[in-house]
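[User]
If only I could read backbone structure tokens as easily as an amino acid sequence. I have put the entry right below:
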Amino acid sequence: MSMQTISIMDYIGTFAFALSGAYLAIRYELDIFGIFVCAFSTACGGGITRDVVMNVGVPRFFSSYTTIMIVIVASLLAIATKSEKWSKLMLTADAIGLAVFAIDTGVRGLDNGYNLPQLVFASVITAVGGGVIRDILLQRVPIVLRKEVYASAALAGAVVLWFIYPIMDKMVATYISLAVVFGIRMWSVYKHIDLPVVHLDTSESAQ
């Protein structure tokens, strides 16, 4: 896959995650500075983690004025359209970011000869890294550690990419994998499907 296509995917994921991060910051009533910090952390945290894991040297974010401008524009858009009615847009933007960063990293990994465990690790850590940083800043349990289908959606897409990328057109394989991640995430949200939670048995201690 061409580097231009990968860069476009990167920018789409950055915009989507920045938008979701800014909306969440507004919901938590952060000030203007906090909104931008949350947007930058959500949008760039995963990419920085990816670049460190993939050993590309200084993370690309620090030398990409385009990425910085995308985050600023997304943050300003969130500020200008602040309203609870945009909550669905926030969920959709977050799902897009999750899909794009997971599969974008997966494509990079396959092009660099990654095996399956390496590919899955890099894809998932990139997809959820920014969200984990965002949630820590907002003092809430990271969404990836809660019952929601989130990291598992990124994992599923990465595995699908691993199997179909070598045997079919690379662009088609990429779009299918993106659809898998996005579809699983949105389907679980709207159908209220969660991963099982193990509850502590307190019956003995209560006696």
Remarks:
- The chain has a mean pLDDT of 87.
- Residues 156 and 181 are 7 Å apart (CA to CA).
- The longest helix spans residues 3-27.
